[in-house]
Specification:
GO molecular function: L-alanine:2-oxoglutarate aminotransferase activity; pyridoxal phosphate binding
Radius of gyration: 23 Å
Order of helices and strands: HHEHHHEHEHEHEHEHEEHHHEEEHHEEEH
Shape: globular
Strand content: 5-15%
Number of strands: 14
Helix content: 40-55%
Number of domains: 2
Number of helices: 16
Structural class: alpha/beta
Largest sheet: 7 strands, mixed
Strand order of the largest sheet: 2-8-7-6-5-3-4
Keywords: Aminotransferase, Pyridoxal phosphate, Transferase
EC number: 2.6.1.2
Pfam family, one: Aminotran_1_2
Cofactor: pyridoxal 5'-phosphate
């Protein structure tokens, strides 16, 4: 079958962009095939630093999660596992009618939502109701659901941070809405400025846009920042004052490394600020990140708290029903992520060691990579307080900028393309996430092993030194 013409495809699909798996990644995949075919390249392997995909980069699965999933799916394995694994699997078997091969409730198995609610309650000290939860095929599914419900026309707008995870801009394009940007303050550690939020919403409304919601990503993607509580509180108050839904992307909540920094959920911020009756808050969590990294299982949840329009809640349930249900393995894993083994249980010692070792290693890698980036000429990089990425700022030589203009190329994309061809390191241009005009960045993950991240740092330094020398 030949390539479809643009006339045969929904123009919204053609217009949607997702740089995390864009042209540079496609080129990397071809280079990987070339290496496998015996081609001689300047590197011996492709290192995918473009996406938060922990297991693909060598992170080991958490034993407890895999044991419960195995005991749940396969008969006769109970004797091979600790008693708390067996007890958890039996609890789930007794509550999942037909097992993991059957459809569940559209919002997810109730006993699994109860486990998630228990974990949220323990995390925040504020009761979570299982009826407020939707289990999901990854947080991305929840993003699509809420955008589909909120966007009626191009006049409907969602405020998103810039830089942003491009899922949000892609979803807005698919559903025909408008992105109203607000720029994070790079010099201030990628924080939010409420006065800037007010200016942006006023400008959008003056242009005839119906601004419906604001997205916060904390810890940040691609920026790796962790927002302070006072910043979150001011943002929640802004949303309450302006009548905006607050959408809180919290999928990196376990990934906080910087001393003195901590994750606070937006639901807790809203509750503690006395805003529960004044705005609707939607929170996302995913099993793809944290210390677990179960990306391929596609699991997560969204929680609806605060003052919700019943019509929106009904519409979200309708979309969940049309999708039938989230996959069962993802649901089960989500319940364990939010309610893992407790101290005193047989699996706790191994579980806590695996968790702590992974997070400690990620912290070391984040420090090593950000230090390596800051040592490069013309490069500055905020420390990665959390998440899985560094987002360095590059000041390019003027001659390189002039050459890119003459060739019709985007400077950060051209830099990332050259980096790939010279080193095999796959990154994502900052233009794929959005950035303040006149600045250039790229996103790079520190998920490769500690041995590999050492090699990445050396190759980055060699490439950048040669690149800069070329334009002096």
């Amino acid at each position: 079958m030949g390539r479809a013409s643009d006339n045969s495809v929904n123009p919204a699909v053609l217009a949607a962009e997702y740089a995390v798996r864009g042209p540079i990644v496609q080129k990397a995949q071809q280079l990987e095939k070339d290496l496998a075919s015996g081609a001689k390249l300047p590197f011996d392997k492709v290192v995918y630093c473009n996406i938060g995909n922990p297991h693909a980069l060598g992170q080991k699965p958490v034993t407890f999660f895999r044991q419960v999933l195995a005991a749940l799916d396969c008969q006769g394995l109970d004797g091979a596992f600790p008693s708390d694994v067996v007890a958890r699997a039996q609890e789930y078997k007794g509550s999942i009618r037909g097992g993991t091969g059957a459809y569940s409730e559209s919002k997810g198995v109730y006993v699994l939502r109860e486990r998630v609610a228990k974990g949220i309650t323990a995390r925040d000290g504020i009761k979570c109701d299982a009826d407020d939860l939707f289990l999901l095929d990854g947080a991305s599914a929840g993003c699509h659901h809420i955008m589909n419900v909120l966007i009626k026309s191009a006049d409907d707008a969602i405020m998103c941070p810039i830089p942003q995870y491009p899922l949000y801009s892609a979803a807005l394009t698919l559903y025909g809405g408008t992105l109203t940007p607000y720029y994070l303050d790079e010099e201030g550690g990628w924080t939010l400025n409420v006065e800037h939020l007010k200016e942006q919403v006023a400008s959008a409304r003056a242009a005839g846009k119906n601004v419906r919601a604001l997205v916060v990503i904390n810890p940040g993607n691609p920026t790796g920042n962790v927002l302070p509580d006072e910043n979150l509180t001011a943002t929640a108050q802004f949303c309450a004052d302006e009548g905006l839904m607050l959408i809180s992307d919290e999928v990196y909540q376990e990934n906080v490394y910087a001393d003195g920094k901590k994750f606070t959920s937006m639901r807790k911020i809203v509750h503690d600020a006395g805003l529960t009756d004044k705005l609707a808050c939607l929170s996302f969590q995913s099993i793809s990140k944290g210390y677990y990294g179960e990306c391929g299982r596609r699991g997560g949840y969204m929680e609806l708290t605060g003052n919700w329009d019943e019509g929106i809640k009904d519409a979200l349930l309708k979309l969940a029903s049309i999708a039938l249900c989230p996959n069962l393995a993802g649901q089960v894993c989500t319940s364990m992520v939010m309610d893992p083994p407790k101290q005193g249980e047989p699996s706790y010692e191994l579980f806590s060691k695996e968790r702590d070792d992974i997070l400690a290693s990620l912290k070391r890698r984040s420090i090593k990579l950000s230090a390596a980036l800051n040592a490069l000429e013309g490069v500055t990089c905020n420390a990665a307080d959390g998440a899985m990425y560094c987002f360095p700022n590059l000041t390019f030589p003027q001659k390189f900028m002039d050459d890119c203009v003459a060739a019709g190329k985007v400077p950060d994309a051209e830099y990332c393309s050259r980096l790939l061809l010279a080193t095999g390191i796959v990154t994502v241009p900052g233009s794929g996430f959005g950035q303040k005009p006149g600045t250039w960045h790229y996103r790079i993950t520190f998920l490769p092993s500690e041995e590999d991240i050492e090699g990445v740092a050396i190759k980055l330094a060699d490439f950048h030194e040669n690149f800069m020398a070329q334009y002096k």
